[in-house]
Records
---
Amino acid sequence: MERRQFLRSSALAGAVLAIANKRAWATSADSYIEIFLDESNGEISPNIYGQFTEHIGGVIYDGVWVGEQSKIRNQFGIRSELVDRMKEIQVPIVRWPGGCFADSYDWKDGIGPVSERPVRTNFWEVDGDAARLHEKGLQVFEPNSFGTNEFMRFCKLVGAEPYIAANLRSLPALSFDHWVEYCNSPARSTTLAKMRAEAGFSDPFNVKFWGIGNESWGCGGSFTPEEYASEFRRYTSWIPNYGVGLQLIGAGPNGNDTDWTHRFFEEIFTEHPYHNTSFMGWSIHHYASNLSRGKTRDWVLGKGDALKFEPADWFELLRECDRVDRIIADQWAIMGQYDTQHEVKLVVDEYGPWYREGTELDPTHIFGQQVTVRDALATALTLDAFNRNADKVSVATCAQLVNNINALFLCHEDRFFTTPNFHVFKMYAAHQGAQSLRANFSAPDVHYDRDGKPASFWGLNGSASRKGNIVTLTAVNSDLSRPSQAQVALRGATIARCAGTALAASDMHAHNTFENPDAVKTAPLDTSISGGFLNVNIPPASVIKLEITLG
Ligand code: AHR
């Protein structure tokens, strides 16, 4: 259908709907969702469905890398089951090698013959979680068996774009240039290209996405914003390009630290103007880590438990994750004061609920934690926020893929299972590359007791998108006990049919284990169409997806 014809028919359908609405909204439904087909704020970048992998605990070693000699099914040393499952959810981009690890990593240690690679002390050796390890194995003393070549192989097997975080704190800018040269210089061109070819990779890797440091306000150098701006200029003024179209990502604030962003952008755009067309992204890290309900600001004491929690903790976690919407709005507004054309987009390259230690599957899994249906809702509402902000967020990577904070997969040695988060990513994959649509959710708030005081949280929220004649609606019902009787109206189109999916559990602590890997999984969700509306009974504590075919 022509765009003009589409707009005309959508306006007509909208008018019909508006009239029909008055009658239909008066049914037994208690929640209403309106999707506006002619109101889009752009394409949802597939790259917001990315993943993050760091050399920490069980992420790379045990998670991604099992080694070529392993009895565990692998391709070139990479765990095959992980690759297969990542393909299922169409992971578009993977960030590596950190995290904090990145700023103490020398990429040259991770190339060349594996037997000749040096063993180094891993950044996370300093962490209290590493202290519990009796055997100070490869989680503490990095063997460098997994380096640039192996990471590229991993990305290729998965079909994902590589996103490398460069070391800004402890390596010179020239070393960064050389890393780009190793990855991207044409076959047979440079000495580094020849070294790459000797490892079996004649063709360049063509890595586009490069992070200029990580958390440069903290583990990445404890810089001031002005100092970081100066480093950023130094590291990015010249980088070999080879026509790859580099996409450079600056190390953004800690949570919603507005001062960091103000001062960096002021330096780069106003004080000492520096225009670099490759500067495309400003990173945000948002962990929901303090669940103390305002009782402490202590990083360790403020953490909650992944498995033992009360209803108030359920909502506290969702509320903390939901802050991402405000962070996106605040950071975007500040950036726009300096970068008035918004050439720089947001890159949320670490996010997720972060609990205290104690639920990791193996002592070597530093920051490993179990993932319940609560975390699935938290992940889903975060992805919905990214979808709604399609014009602002261009990349996002979940921290972290496997055996870590908000993992999609948990495994140890030859045992492996998917967490509820995997199912969320599978459901939400349909949004990748679709047009984000405005959707209005109108539903009662949920009320609960927050340490003796009444508190509330939204009952239903989500996002919608359109690809061809399919509209995808995803939503979260945060209520622990009440289903949401929802009625869905499409403004500007008619509904031909709908397929629903739900991820729900009657116990808020439900999670998958080696013994019961399918305790939390998706199931079909019934929907009906009447009077041009879609009716759906959304289970309590659930994430749902509706795949609506337009008439
Ligand atoms: O994801 C774990 C750590 O959290 C990352 O290494 C760091 O960037 C953040 O503080």
---
Amino acid sequence: MKLTQEEQEMLDGKYGEGAKIALKIQVALGDVFKAERMVPVSRTHVALSNQDADIWFAEKMVEAGAKCRVSPTVNPGFNLEYFQCITTISKKDEEQIRRTRKAYKELGATLTFDCTPYQEKNVPRFGEITAYSESSATPFINSVYGARTNRESAQSALCAAITGRTPLYGFLLDENRKGEVLVDVQAKIRNDFDYQLLGYAVPKKLKFKTPVFVNVPTNPSPAALMNLGAQLNTAGNVPMYHIVGVTPEAPTLEAAFHGEEPKKIITITQEDLEKVHEEITDPGGKIDFALFGCPHFNIDQVKQVADLVKGKQLKVKLWIMTSALTKNLATKMGLLETLQAAGGDIVDDTCMDQPCWEFLYGKKGVTDSPKCAYYTKRRNMQFVIREVDECIEACMRGEI
Ligand code: F3S
């Protein structure tokens, strides 16, 4: 790989041991993907996980004196102070979250602790070269904004934040952004929830390919696009999709395929959506809780739930996970008060795949998110997956 003088100096240690290690990793990654050079990044997002390997790497970089040149927004761990008020947090888990906070603070990260920063704090413009990790983030950056990112890991994104660079390969290059498979959606896409199922169903028929959707509505909400990307990338490692008339690089079908023919055409029917729904949901029955916000809810989604529970009483506890910024907004708008009056709550800085939810292990909840159900299987949490309004009705009855 050809390096600039500054990059070579970084690799030689002129800018400190941390930057040297980070660039060394990136050069190795670039070699693997046959990148010819590095390019500057203007934005980064690190999907920290608050788990051992993540903390090990972040602390290693702190010890090496690394500081981020391009301050990354970061994913959630869990809100220690909130959960200490409602359950018991072990000493080990408390120490883990404190170490995560300390390491990323010392690295100079922007501590959003939010998995949808692309909606409110870290929003790129068309064509910007960035490095985002997090499964819902990469497709949103590529497909909705037309900015560019590879499907980074937390560690490679942190390296990019430290060096301010990324190897030029993959989805940063024009030729790799073209659509590959035409996805003809015959199923009816009625609401944001249907995009969850669509995103989960498509990788059943294609893997590691860039889909181009036709026959879907051309006015999807931000939540719909977030859902589609999150599920596509969780179920099938798809960091970019095109919706003709929505994706900036796909004003026409021809533009989406860069003037070439699709490699394949697949059809998604109503039956496909129903089948995938049946496959991923646990069966109904008595429920103990509801959990929303995987990925983190935006303010419109918080309002939707608040409107549905207004003046009602829930039989089971309901949590919405979101960013601190959105929670603050929801508080000002009176939505938090409405939710709390019904027996719900908003929790910021928190992911559902964290030990703070241990008090729900072995229990059954409702959610609108296949991703939430997928990740929590290893934590022995069961989820019935339904549309948001059906989930709320279930919360009022205590069963579904
Ligand atoms: Fe966000 Fe955690 Fe789900 S990071 S997308 S709440 S798995």
